[in-house]
Design a protein that fits this description.
This protein is an alpha/beta fold. The protein folds into two domains: about 190 residues, Periplasmic binding protein-like II (D-Maltodextrin-Binding Protein, domain 2), CATH 3.40.190.10; about 150 residues, Periplasmic binding protein-like II (D-Maltodextrin-Binding Protein, domain 2), CATH 3.40.190. Strand 3, helix 1 and strand 4 form a beta-alpha-beta unit. It is globular.
Length: about 350
């Protein structure tokens, strides 16, 4: 069962899913309960829960809310918390939970082998589940791709009054700027943020899908979004017309495309830490990793996983920024200061 943040029963989801192989100790897990606190609400995750239940006999119960609310709930509950696993979106939010001491370290040879070093905490406090890339969406009839150079393009005077983006308080943008601080240094990152804010077609409004719709409607010519919002529209029969005349530009120049993740860790006061380990290890097996790509249009964090997704295949390959994602949290306070100085609403 899934529960709302204040304990309200939401639904029992019946997605069909096959197991990706029974985790170690699965036979001894039947009849037990695993509680997952999650800021995600995607079909891929519900399929993962069902598959884990089928493989182990464990009853997975979830409490869902915005990432910051989850942190506050976990802090308030303290040692009384029922959470076994914490799942949240963005390395910046994982860092916030880490700073509050909400994770217990997990030493797992399976996870260390499956998950690239940059996609997990160096002390095993959290592990990436799925990846998302921060890309540029543009209108080819109004923007010459040959003149795009990377994230720097958003700051180009040629795009004065033509850029759309989310607010500076959005964690996706904070993490991007945190990565650019690591890449360029504070002075250049400040100049970039200031110039991008000066190029806005309108004040930041709505989520990533709203930025894509704004480009399609001609409100702006180029926008900053996560790739899976675009892929979702490409794969949707009802909405794919919105993006038929738009394109994605991969900012491969310099260090490469900014990639972020959703991640999971064992809760510090987990009543069932062994079940939590089994669950996170299970999430890195083939079928759960395919769920993230095929049901949510994200990329598997395990690099050897093969999947089928027409939109992702059409978007093509790209070069990832090799930054260790734990650095995004370390730089986020500075990133917010730079946004504030830049006048980015």
């Amino acid at each position: 069962m899934r529960f709302g943040i204040f304990g309200l029963v939401i639904a029992i989801l019946g997605l069909s899913a096959c197991s990706g192989g029974a985790p170690d100790g699965a036979g001894a897990s039947e009849g037990k309960v695993l509680v997952v606190f999650s800021s995600r609400h995607y079909d891929s995750d519900y399929a993962l829960y069902d598959a884990f239940e089928e493989a182990t006999g464990v009853d997975v119960r979830t409490i869902e809310a915005d990432g910051d609310l989850l942190v506050e709930r976990l802090k308030a509950d303290g040692k009384r918390s029922p959470a076994d696993v914490i799942v949240t979106v963005d390395a910046g939010r994982l860092w916030r939970a880490e700073q509050e001491g909400l994770f217990a370290p997990l030493d797992s040879a399976k996870l260390n082998e499956a998950v690239p070093a940059g996609m997990r905490h160096p002390d095993g406090l959290w592990f990436g589940l799925a990846k998302r890339a921060r890309v540029l969406v543009y209108a080819p009839d109004r923007v010459d791709e040959a003149k795009l150079t990377g994230y720097e393009s958003l700051a180009d005077p040629a795009f004065k009054g033509k850029v759309c983006a989310r607010s500076s308080g959005n964690i996706y943008n904070i993490s991007l700027l945190a990565a650019l601080i690591d890449r360029w240094g504070t002075e250049k990152a400040q100049e970039w943020a200031t110039n991008v804010a000066g190029n806005f077609a309108r004040d930041p409004l709505g989520g990533d899908t709203d930025q894509i719709k704004a480009v399609a409607a001609g409100e702006c010519d180029i926008a900053l979004v996560n790739h899976y919002y675009f892929a979702r529209l490409m794969n949707d029969e009802k909405d794919k017309g919105l993006v038929e005349n738009l394109a994605v530009y991969w900012p491969n120049a310099d260090a490469g495309v900014h990639v972020n993740l959703s991640g999971a860790g064992v809760a510090k006061n987990a009543p069932n830490p062994e079940l939590a380990r089994q669950f996170i290890e299970f999430a890195m097996t083939e079928q759960p990793q395919r769920f993230f790509a095929e049901l949510t249009n994200e990329y598997p964090v395990v690099p050897t996983i093969k999947y089928e997704n027409a939109a992702l295949e059409k978007l093509g390959e790209f070069k990832e920024d090799p930054i260790a994602l734990s650095k995004l949290g370390e730089n986020q306070a500075e990133a917010q200061r730079l946004f504030d100085r830049a006048g980015w609403p």
